[in-house]
Design brief:
Keywords: Membrane, Transmembrane, Transmembrane helix. With 479 residues, the protein is α+β, with helices and mostly antiparallel strands. It is 23% helix and 22% strand. The strands form 3 sheets. Strands 3-4-5-6-9-8-7 form a 7-stranded antiparallel beta sheet, covered by helices on one side. A 7-stranded antiparallel beta sheet has the order 10-11-12-13-16-15-14, with helices on one face. Strands 1-2 form a two-stranded antiparallel sheet.
């Protein structure tokens, strides 16, 4: 087992080994006893004016001899007696300069650790107030000089030890690698695959460029009463949604296309809670508008046949790609991707406010917050504001709903919008608020605004009860 290194104090000194005879020497270490002249330790400085290879000049009578790096105090040379201190001549220097002794090669009588030994046999004065066997100690008049010199010596020796260890062992810390390019982990307004530029997300439901299949499908859907907008539209491609909302009836065709207009992913949905037949008719019209030029007429016929069978869930193969079809009568959906093509990554969106912060702000506006935050509207109505987000992130969906007497709903809706958008935080809030307020005529709308999906729906079919809802959420697209 490797012996741990001793501290800078030699044997017999505070923090070191007890003084004693080592290596057969009679000299005793410790405070109040003078160490043998061979026993210079970490507290002495090497000769300042003589090279390590040259023997030092003998000390002057009455002066302490120069001291160098040597053995620890109390460690004598085997076979030598301890010379005296003051006024005695030093032993002839040994050959060699500074020598390093590793941990694994300790000699008998030596302290373990890295030790540097000077050729000269240094002189060790006695401790304060005591005399060693080789001579007397310092007087009181020399005590301040001894203490000051000792402090300076300890500082210098510590610096030399640090530099020596650093030179022998190298730097403790590896030089840091150059910093990697900074990448943002926050949600962006456009996916990295199509371009990753926030400018690719239209701010108010506009359409970007489109050619080929995408352009043809868009024009046919618009002619059928759909309103279209782009979630993003960049150099590599786009994500487009065409929506047709009318009260309880709604239909949408969402597709992605490459820069040359080639459609690579499609979702079609039609819902009519009042009339099952109308849901199927609207679905078939949307299927033909995008499918005849994209999939081919024969592939469209395969989907139409699958719808007629009435199966709730089925897969339909085609030369364009495989489709998944669900049919619940009043709600029909179909999705599919082009073989050999991958759909674009969707942007993750969130507001800069959490659920807890939203609820706290609504309570300050006199909302009662339990599972939802609400206020009473009129005699029996209410207005609700709600948001959902991850446990440690901002809101990814936001809803405002007012219901009750139709007149009360119409009167309360502007205040609910002001309350909700007054609390939301984020770069898209102003564009979203502008879209919602400009579509507050009581009709239903849907579209993409600044990378968000926005739905504005209302029900005024009953003269005694009505509702109005604004729903904002990030879009998902799986085909």
């Amino acid at each position: 087992m490797t012996t741990p290194p001793q501290g800078p104090w030699g044997p017999g000194q505070p923090g070191g080994q007890p003084g004693g005879q080592q290596g057969g020497q009679p000299g005793q270490g410790g405070w109040g006893q003078q160490q043998p002249p061979q026993g210079g330790g970490w507290g002495q400085r090497p000769p300042a004016q003589q090279p390590p290879q040259q023997p030092p000049a003998p000390p002057q009578q009455g002066q302490p001899p120069q001291q160098g790096w040597g053995q620890q105090p109390g460690q004598g040379q085997p076979g030598q007696s301890a010379p005296g201190g003051w006024g005695q001549q030093q032993q002839p220097p040994q050959q060699g300069g500074y020598q390093q002794q590793p941990w694994s090669q300790n000699k008998p009588g030596q302290q373990p650790g890295w030790q540097q030994q000077h050729a000269q046999q240094p002189w060790q004065p006695g401790g304060p107030g005591g005399k060693g066997p080789g001579g007397g100690g310092f007087g009181k008049d020399k005590m301040p000089l001894f203490i000051g010199g000792g402090v300076v010596g300890v500082v210098l020796i510590g610096l030399l030890v640090f530099l020596g260890v650093k030179a022998l062992g190298g730097d403790d810390k590896k030089e840091a690698d150059p910093p990697a390019p900074t990448t943002s982990t926050q949600p962006t307004d456009a996916p990295t695959t199509p371009g990753g530029d926030e400018t690719t997300a239209p701010t108010n439901g506009e359409l970007g460029n489109a050619t080929g299949q995408a352009k043809t499908a868009t024009e046919k859907l618009q002619a059928a009463g759909f309103g279209c907008s782009d979630l993003f539209n960049g150099p590599q491609g786009a994500h487009r949604g065409c929506f047709k909302y009318d009260g309880a009836k709604s239909a949408e065709v969402i597709f992605q296309f490459q820069s040359d207009g080639t459609i690579i992913g499609v979702k079609i949905r039609s819902e009519d809670n009042d009339n099952v037949n109308n849901a199927a008719v609207t679905f078939d019209a949307a299927l033909q508008a995008i499918g005849n030029d994209t999939f081919g007429g024969s592939e469209v016929a395969k989907v139409q046949q699958a719808v007629k069978t009435g199966q709730k869930r089925t897969k339909v193969g085609s030369t364009w790609g495989e489709f998944e079809l669900t049919n619940y009568g009043d709600d029909l959906q179909m999705s599919g991707g082009k073989s050999g093509s991958d759909s674009f990554e969707m942007p993750r969106k969130q507001f800069q406010i959490t659920e807890a912060q939203l609820n706290a702000a609504l309570k300050a506006k006199k909302y009662t917050c339990t599972s939802l935050c609400k206020k009473t509207v009129g005699k029996y109505g209410s207005q609700l504001i709600d948001g959902y987000g991850s446990s440690n992130g901002g809101l990814s969906s936001f809803d405002i709903r007012v219901s009750g007497d139709p007149n009360d709903v119409k009167a309360a809706m502007p205040g609910a919008i002001a309350d909700g958008f007054g609390i939301l935080k984020g770069p898209d809030v102003e564009a979203l608020k502008s879209y919602v307020t400009s579509h507050s005529d009581g009709k239903s709308y849907a579209g993409y605004v600044s990378g968000w999906r926005v739905e504005i729906t209302g029900d005024t079919s009953d003269s005694d009860y009505g509702s109005r809802t604004v729903s904002i959420r990030y879009e998902s697209f799986y085909v």
